[in-house]
User: Fold these one by one.
Assistant:
Number 1:
Amino acid sequence: MATEELTLAILTRKADRQTGAFEQLLAAHERMVVGTAFRILGRMEDAQDAAQDVFLRLHRHMDRIESEPKAWLYRVTVNVCNDFFRRRMATTELDIAHADPSPGPDHALSMEERKRLLMEGLQTLPERERTAVVLREIEGLSTREVAEILGVEEVTVRSQISAARVKLAKYVQRTTRKRS
Amino acid sequence: MNCQECERLLAADETSAGLDRHLAECVECRELAADLRANAEAFREMTAMPMPSVRGAVLGQVRARETRRQVARWGWALAAAAAMLMVFVATRQAPEVQRQATRSPALQEEQRRATPLAGSEKRLAAQQNRQATRSPALLIAREMRQQASPLAGSEKRAPAPQEPLKVKMLTSDPDVVIYWLIEPKEGSE
């Protein structure tokens, strides 16, 4: 085989391997990235745009990611979503069409309403509290993992989550009282 | 225990006998505790929500970007190669052009008669001679033709370089380096 053909074959195989690895990462973490983006942004359309941005960054930096891809993806998702959130107009309506259908009729109504109110309430939180509560409460990460992703101490994360829980509970109470 | 202390303990998921006593006598704190529990349950349900796929859109964009990158990479490489080739050919032809320009008209006429060219080729050669001082590209073409034909010219050509010319071209991609080896034509002396 000529040198040029050999070089081309090596480059092609390298590209194929990278593409395969990327597609595997995309398949494994797609739901996680879209879900996190949706909880932070509150709109599915924005969440999908943000998720695409995250995966394109992943593809661009595949060679340079030395740490765990999951932690890297969470970190980039949070950063991309926070940028989205800051740019977004305050008048944007939240997308509640993607609320999950629940099992029983009575319980379903109240739980559905609560989820909707929580999604609304999340958008009223400060950026750090919103991110911390999404990662800890919805994504189910440990306090240490959240601290690593956000680059803060664990005690800070605990404090942010506590504050966010109380604010969300009071937001739900306040909104429910106003409507009734 | 006051309501503020109770709120702090509830939010941090902590328990104590003092907290239980306060909850037993404070309606507002009991409501807060109930909401915190219900919210935690709602969050857990939200975890299982189905999400739309972005795989197709992402892979489409990745492929489009890869195609653009390949086109740009090879476009630049080919442009660089073409430029290097032109420089090389022009450098090789420079002495010959100078000789052509200084050659006497009588000698040029003698050379044209000695060349066994077909009728159409003769016309082409005459046209090339007319344009020799204007068009370097035609000069190069004529030189190649003269080298290929059994020319009986008495003049001596400039010796061709014996070592192959090696041109190394770096591209924007550090993984891609193009080597262009130009070997001297055998029997061109």
Note: Helices of chain A lie at 3-41, 44-60, 69-87, 105-124, 127-138, 143-150, 154-179.
Number 2:
Amino acid sequence: MAGHEAGKPLLELRGVTKIFRYGMFGFRFRAVDDVNLVMEDRPLILTIAGESGSGKSTLAKIILGIHKPEYGQVLYRGRDIHRLRGRELLWFRKEVQAVFQDPFASFNPLKRVYGYLYETVKNIVGISERAKIDAYIDEVLRSVGLNLDKVKGKYPHEFSGGELQRVAIARALLTRPRLIIADEPVSMLDASLRVNILNVFKRIREEMGTSFIYITHDLATAYYISDLIAIMYRGSVIEYGPIERVLTKPLHPYTQTLLESIPEPDPRRRSEWLKPIKLSGIEEKEFVAKGCKFAPRCPYATKRCFEEPPPEVVVNGVRVRCWLYYVKGSSPAEKR
Amino acid sequence: MKTYEEQFYVDAVSGVTLEAYENEVLGIAGESGCGKSTLLKIIYGYVKPPLTVRSGRVLVDTGKGSIDVLSMDLEERRSRIWWRYISYIPQNAMNVLNPTSRIRDHFAEVLRLHQGLDREEAYRVAAEYVTQLGLPRDVVNAFPHQLSGGMRQRVVIALALIMKPRVVLADEPTTALDVVVQRGILQTLIERQRELRNTLILVTHDMGVHAMLTDRIAIMYAGKIVEIGRTEEVFEKPLHPYTRMLIESLPRLGDKRVRKGLAGQPPDLRSPPPGCRFHPRCPYTTDRCRREEPPLVEVEKGHWVACWLYAKK
């Protein structure tokens, strides 16, 4: 856990591991495997990116305190969030808020959305006078491009997906959180509307100093809004660092493959993208692999990659879990 | 005019005229509810209530004259055109396989019906065919649930292509898949198209996929084609304000410039706005746009747009 001595981090994950069991023989796999992350205490947007099944949503739930990890700790401003009780827990819930993928699933269809906003202000923020509550809700709704008149009296189905997602963001903002965890908040929306929500995040960060953890599989939107990125693969964070560096000079072979495969809206990249790639049929097995989970698909894999889990190596401020970059010690991993 | 019926009519696909050529990949792009999937279903002739076609024809060149897909009944389409001339790869294709039969039986059924092969022969042909496509040979002996989503999707594509159809219709064929798997599958699809020199009509909302695969692209908005042209041209020089805003709203790697999304939302197609259907969201709206529907005009060779900004010139 190097590199956080100066100043207190906002969020710190130490060796976080979540084990799920399934099947009748209690088959176990690590949905999140030894994740270490440090997020400084200043307004930042951190992306946790990965494909389906990479463990990114499980990790989000761990950070929110919904899942408890089997090993490791999540420290929020120095406090282990899975040990918080009573007043401290309430404090944590004020400070850390969530926005989820499907806004229609976040609101009860039979309940007016205003009710959610009202209750949050009354119970968590602690304003009790009706007029003051409404004034406060209106102010927050305006920061996401809505206002009280547009929202009051309406049921969820009366909003479009983009509008309701804004309401969900406003609800999260009501407690003046220091950190918002947004799990695929734009993937249900049409492409032409996504950027509007992303711009709301950027503005909130600038105006209110809120930090974000943006969880997504979409690296283009991640690049657009984030400062830092953690790339997950089969439960492990395999690369973590400033987004500029990770997405323009990727170190890990998986990050490289991922970036090459994104279909970008630019026909000039076509011939490169059409260069044939091979696909593997084995996916489940990778979770329980002994060594590096990417080894079976990696063009640079050596014997060691299959046998030992790769160490976390720091290269130019980027942490990468790959034997390719390991130089200290006896036998450095070779490029083949 | 093609319409959904449900006590009221939803004008889901409206006055679309479209040509797709031999040895071409034609993309149909647009956002949710624009009618792109409905259009594809109509081209396939898969018209079942609540979907009804109120007017129009879908002509397919079979090599021995053209036939109107919509003039046949469902049974006739099934026995005479589907698989052989037109194949359809549906959305969520990975869930269309029958969970209780092995992959080889899916192939055998098609081969028996359309080539009159017996079971043993069909199994042999199927095994050979999948290895040709680069799939592992034992895929044919597996049940669908034993395969990964990506592998199932490739099986469905292989099935759709086995009779070497002249026209292949693919509706969001890789939407639920990871980008690496998506790339592999789309590569298979395009390789097959080049080999057969047939027509692939690809529907997806993903503009990136269009940029990587299609020769021409048609942009749909609220049931209408608003622009059509060569893919490079449409991306480099989009004409319709909707196309322009759509392309400009897409974040790109390596580019942090501030982007703007569209304001507002698509119209309710139970009562579409008069004139141009995009006018309520368009920054260039004039009175004419509110009253009259713009015609599709050819601005440059092969590049068509339905917008009064260009029609009046």
Note: The longest helix of chain B spans residues 179-196.
Number 3:
Amino acid sequence: MLQFLQQPWPWYIAGPLIGLTVPALLILGNKNFGISSSLRHVCAACIPANIEYFKYDWKKEIWNLIFVLGIMIGGFLAAYYLDNPSEIVVAPSLKTELQSYGIQDYSNALIPADIVKWASVFTFKGFFILVIGGFLVGFGTRYAGGCTSGHSIMGISAMNWASLLATICFMIGGFFTANLVLPFILSH
Amino acid sequence: MSNQNQKDLQKRELDAMCVNESQLSHPWYYNIKYLLVGIIFGIVFVKAEIVSWFRIQEMFRLQSFHMYGIIGSAIIVGALSVWIIRRFQIKTIYGEPIVIVNKPFNKGIIYGGLLFGMGWAITGACPGPLFAQIGSGASVVIITILSALLGTWTYGWLRDRLPH
């Protein structure tokens, strides 16, 4: 049984489980599923700096920070108790492309260990992926008012066309960057 | 609701906030249920490799159906659930009516959406996965989260000067 759970879970199991988060949070306490707002709450709680956007009663949204803490704990449990003993299986065409950038370490299924590591933080590639990438995520999600959780899953589930538009923009930005920008950055 | 409460509510309704004006006041341990949902969510995230940089690269290169299957089936299940909740007027476990706040359109959705999409492709993660990655032991992702917080803070700082 454990071995069964340790293998990577297929999309038709994972997807519906993710989707069930929507009614679960609504029924448990009328909470609208969303994760990027946690970044706003942390800023409001720690460094509001007299900025209007952070001047609200963040404590009323504490459920969101606890939810996000749960995600961290879940990540820990999955990695330490349900770890997949085999290496992640990646599309051959991607492997070939990544090899040309010097990415061949697949021992960590979640991150490209060759460039995402503490030693790379101050290298160009590492800095780009960690800091520039992270900054764009934090800035972009709040500017858009949500991420894939809040817009793509919750928003579209609620038939909100603005969320569909947001999702389309996410994908356009992603396609452009993954195919045109990243290869340039990673090959230098 | 008092004037101050009303103003605070409006601020929290902006873009991403879920607004629950529950009139019930619960002790802190009532939040544990959100922790449990989060834990299950985090486990699914990691086990289904949703939080894998490699899977996101495959997604944006159309090299795998995996992420599309996940997002698509999540939306179908979510939409069905919302329809059922609305159709049968399902209440919360405390008997309160369920209210879904639709985020309004503004140009930030386009500009911010594109920028986030770029960050998503670069980091191979959106906010949720970043937390799951840290939990799974990829401590260097703390740098990414800190950068994301800086990004959010910068947004808040520049907000009035950005087109919406």
Note: The helical segments of chain B are 3-13, 32-47, 53-60, 66-87, 108-123, 127-135, 141-158.
Number 4:
Amino acid sequence: MRPASSYCREGWRHLAPQARVFNGSVVRKSLRYAEVARLNTAQLVEEFYMPLYRFGLSLTRKESDAGDLTQQTFYRWQTKGHQLRDAAKVKTWLFTTLYREFLAKKRHDQHFVDVEDDSVFVEPEHISPSFVDTLDAAIVQEALLELHDRYRAPVTLFYMQQHSYREIAEILEIPIGTVMSRISRGKAELRKSLSDLAANEARKIVSIEKVRAHG
Amino acid sequence: MDNEQARSILSLHRRMDEGNGDPRFREAEKVAERDRELAQWWAEEKDVDDAISAQLTNMPVPAGLKQRILSQTPPSTAPNKWLRPVLLAAACLVALAVLFGSWRSRSHPPMSLAEYRSQMVNFIDGYPPLALETKDLSQLTAFLARADAPRPSEIPKKLRELEPIGCRTLQFHGENVALICFRRENGTTAHLFIMKSAGLGHLSSRDTPAYAPSGKWMTAAWGEDGKAYLVLVEGDLAQIKNIVKTS
């Protein structure tokens, strides 16, 4: 199956650093300061406003707040983006900025919670791909938004399939080990939630059918 | 690597992570090549991840959002044309001054307490996330030890009595800095930074810390046992004095 997010990765190519072949391998030539200035805001909006909005929605759980965060992120780009030295970092810069804006808007003590996970791996509940395909997108979205705060951001970035682990760690400003630990636990929580939500939906359908049968 | 370890590593790798050169992943992949059941499980895992990804990336985006973003007009950041040569000349002068300064005072410390204080305040103003969040101070110091960050030899009594929130590490001039946060009675946060004091020049002693305001923060700094301590609280001089006092 081709992930739907791949359109963004393909779209990113025209902004990515030029590639050249060196000793038989492709080497990325870093775009430097001057080239950052040439990045077109309209192009960046076109490429990133949707994934940024979805990331914002996963953080805030509110469409209006996610829209505001996305708008604010591009405002920051227009006012501060010229300080970025390496154009290849634009994607990470935008996601980091959105995340920082989110944290800044949140009351400072709200993002502190009391427990930390030490174990890196948690065995996720087994579900089949066909099971996920049968789920309504709204159910998957609901399950994601129900995730605990600490897991929601890394799990969203994981499933967006646009960022390496290193980039996720940069965006969230936490060590890679912590990213992996949170994704592992978040995935397990998401799968469980999906199973529960799907079971609830199935029960509702059975109840309706029973009512119809008796009616 | 056994089957269980391979499973834990593989479950965290998406299709896009394949070929990223991670040696542990390569090893786990080899285990899967030898174990048909594990290979089947991993193939399904990737399909499930792709299916969830596809559902999430189809989340609707409000109509008009793009237009709203494109229509916002930021203040112009481009300098006026006449200003450009002036700024360039000023930049050259600053560069020369820095070069001259570094040549004149090679033995002088390259960083200062004022710069350290200012950077830590800026850092906190950015609402940085914590790496470990727990109320257990011993867990926090153990985490800092594992992260190769300086641990506090002694935390002021009043600060120690507050409820810890969490910690993280950061860097200043290539030096590891430890940050521990405490919740104050009034709900605000007290921040304690610790780094090696070498390079910061002479620091006040524990009994007579150097106090300085910085934005909304009041700060106190001192040196002890080769470490520099910096405390940030929202409040006035009396409040921070109360927090860092020795007796």
Note: Residues 105-109 of chain B have pLDDT under 50 and may be disordered.
